[in-house]
Each structure stands twice: as structure tokens, then as C-alpha cells.
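Sequence only, no structure available. Ideas?
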Amino acid sequence: MQRTLWLIRHAQTQEAQNVQGIRQADAQRQLTPRGLATLEQLQAHLHDNSGVPAQWLWVSPATRTQQTAQPLAALWQAEIISEPTLYLASADTILDCLTGTPDHCTSCAVVGHNPGISDLAHLLNGANQTQTGYLDLPTLGMMRMSFTGGWQDLRPASCEQQAYWQPQREHDK
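Reply:
I predicted one. C-alpha cells follow.
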């Protein structure tokens, strides 16, 4: 069976704040206004170019990944699954999580953090066929991949890159 996998890095976040001398926890950092604006760019892009929408979104419990995932889940009408092991996870941990995707899902996404999400893009991308050279997903960078088999069949070099998107920067306009 043909499967679609979306790898998405969270949008730009605020620096950790100090409130009454107490430093905010990293997991509580929220999206910046620029992060929210680029999230709107991605939503518009996906509305016009989504291909196969994700049915299932694996998401780190961090505030920034949850804020990134919520509008995407609404667009795709997908279920959000908050998975604690995805917070600052390595590529191997993310891969382990993805292999637990239910079989009835033909398309899923993971919203996570660097370096793990970029490392996973490299790990899964077959035959070094990346269309963008060495890929370090920027904040809110997205890669859509496909593979044949079940989610438990995800292995290094088992996917083919179908699409890549990154936010348009002010100097790119």
C-alpha cells in the first residue's frame, strides 16, 4: 500500500522568558507573530497543493509544536496525537513512534523539533535523492515523502521525497 509521510518542523518561537526571576521552561515557549504568519503561509500552500492530507498527526507535547499542529489538523481534519517521547526526540525515536501509526492511516504527519526531524528526513530519504541538497529543515520547513508498505516497514532510505516547502523570507519577496 502507498503511504504518505509529512515531516514538519514547528514554526518560529519566542525566546524563553524570565517571569519574576523564574526562567520559562523550553517546552512552554510559544510561536512568535512571524511564526504565526508563516504558519498561515503553509496553510495556504497546503490548501492549494496538499496532495494526500494527513489523517493522523504525531506531535510533541511542547507548546510550539501543538500551536503548529492545530491549524494543520483543522485544515486536514486530522487527529492530533500528543506523544511525550517526541519532545526534542532523535531521528530514531521519531521513527519508532511513526512505526506505531495505525494501519488504517494511509497518510500521517509528525510535527517535531530539530535536529531530530531534519535527521529523520535524511535517514528516510532513499538513494540520497533529496531535491534540496543537505536538508536542515528551517522553522516550519516541511517535507512530504512516500513509501510502499506498512508503517512498521519504515526504514532508512525507504522513502521518496515528493515535495519540500519552507517559509518565504522577507528578502525573498
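Residues 2-13+27-172 form a domain with the Rossmann fold fold (CATH 3.40.50.1240).
Hope that gets you unstuck.
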